[in-house]
Each structure stands twice: as C-alpha cells, then as structure tokens.
Write a structure and sequence with these properties.
Blueprint (H helix, E strand, L loop, with lengths): L7 H8 L5 H13 L1 H16 L4 H7 L7 H9 L4 H13 L3 H36 L4
Helix pairs in contact: 1-3, 5-7
Amino acid sequence: MNVTIFTDAELLAYLDETLAISRSVLLEQQLRLDPILQKRITELARERDQGGHSIGEIWRRDRLSCLSRDLLGSYLLGVVPPALKDYIEFHLQIINCRYCQANLDDLQQQDQGQTDQHLQKRYFESSAGVLRGRRRD
C-alpha cells in the first residue's frame, strides 16, 4: 500500500469538508485501511469538538470568509469592482472553497436552465405563429 502523509491541518479540513477533492479521495482510501490514521483523525475530531472556541475555529466553522449567493451572482454578471473580483477569484481558485464553488456551479446551472426555458418559449411562440397562419386547403 502506498502511504500518503497527511498533516493535522489536512485532517481537520477533511472533517470540515474543505479539503481539496483529490486529497479527500486519497485520505478516504487510506482511512479504510489504516487503523492508526483512523485513531488520529478521531482524536483530532474529539479535540476540535471540545475546544472549538478559538477565533480561527469559529471563522472556519461559520464560514465567515465565504461569499453570499448574491455576491456570486453579481460576479457571474461581471458587475463587481475589480478588487472584489480579485478576492472572489482568490477564494474560489486559491483557497479552493468547495462551498462557494458549489454555490457558483448551482447559480450557473440555474442561469443555463433559465436560458433554455427562454429559448424553448421563443421557439414555441415562433412555431405557434407559423402554425396559426397555415390554412388547410
């Protein structure tokens, strides 16, 4: 078995579901087979739950740096100031926030769904007009 070393910070990020997906997959595979790693992550979870009152822990737990859906929507529309756009891209691409990425993906899918519905309506309206104009001979 190829053993990957995980830091305590990575294990805590995994518990908070903020670890990069590629690392999460490796960790889950290793957790299934490694009782020492299982014990380590259990102890970290217990310590975190008992003393999770540091500013950093509150910040991570409550996702204080995460972006609102309104802000992400404005970002998609391209109407945010350049400095804010830089922060949003940093948060999504460098921090790799899975929660904000999921919200962004959801907003993009909603936008695509609305575009598809709009096109369907336009096609229907144009076809209905053609069909109304036809007469049987």
